[in-house]
Fold:
Amino acid sequence: MPLVGEKGMEYLSNTYAGDFVSVAAARGRLVMESKDLTKVYKLGLTSRDYISAVRQANFALYEKSVVALVGESGSGKSTIAGLLAGQIPKTSGDIILNGQPVSIKSNRSFRAYKREVQMVFQDPFSSLNAIHKVRHHLKRPIEIHQPKLKRAAVEKEVFSLLSQVRLIPSDQFVDKFPYELSGGQRQRVAIARALAARPKVLLADEPVSMLDVSIRLEVLSLLDDLRDRFSLAVLYITHDIASARYFADETIVIYGGDIVERGPSEDVTQTPVHPYTQLLVSAAPDPDALGSSIREAKTANQVTKPRQTGSALTSTAGCRFTPRCPFADEKCAAEMPPLLTVSQHRQVACWHIDKAIANSIFKQIPVKSSGTGSTENVTLHGTHAPLKNKQDSNYGSPNVSDMTNSSGHGTNSQTVVSERASEDGTIA
Structure:
């Protein structure tokens, strides 16, 4: 049986020779890419100190797909949203839209970009102007982005948008002021306003975090319906990893401006690898006891260290999770780990991935045969339940020993072996 010891990361890097493929790519064509996107802020006018809010972020958004960006407050999620929305100038890197690099140099180019990329903000109470009625909030973007429409067509489009976001009958909402609407109704108006431009990309920055718990699922269900109906590529930004599991095809976990793990949402939430992802999952309130195995497996040596005073963004070198990681050593503090492709749809950035796996809720690890019969390779494998099956009573109950792929066909090239975690964290 193969071993993953001190050089676990180097070993695992040789177990999967293929390229990483986002699971969201199966939904539709590529719409937007972020390549080495970086944002650095200078502290004061005269200070030589800087904060790297985002460091070399790489991901892609696909038509009819939802990619979730998950992390705690201050991790860089909203900064990435601002960069993609064109509201924050990037320090370096590229944003690719429809195969072309984005360059915003004038009001005209910015307006053309906003026609393709729209944003829904977190706070529905401040994102709408209180002195204007709903009609104005929808009519104005229609007139800007669809200037050829006549007055009657604009009015018809306003009512159509209200119907699309399930504010019906529309005539009861069109002449109301924002203060006359509930929080959920305001957020629906904000979503309708974003759709008025007929965008290809929708950036949803924590769109349900300020809504009542009872209506959050309704709004997520609405967004799920709209992404199919309008062929939207959705970036869903949230601190709630449980909702990402329900809503998104792919989940990207970010800490201190660095992407630390990414993969199919079901896999990331059910079999988290990076210590920070494990921390997020173990803290997620879930009626299905999401992450309960992690809680039960924690020991005095495995509990993640508490948050340190100050921001993770002040660290300029190494892994920014080092002060809170139970496995951190000098190398972690000195050198930033690469985002390692450990399976076709899964990437993790950790120097001690072997110990992290031993600490995770993995009970079994599939071993993929090389085809020669002479060697076996350890791979990270999990089952990903399709988003359309989330109403299924068995949704969210993956079995890592189930050797069926996403199409439902069996894979004979994989067998399952039990793992044993020794006291030093080595997987045998």
Observations:
- Residues 1-11, 297-303, 362-428 have pLDDT under 50 and may be disordered.
- The radius of gyration is 23 Å.
- Residues 33 and 60 are 4 Å apart (CA to CA).
- Residues 213-229 form the longest helix (17 residues).
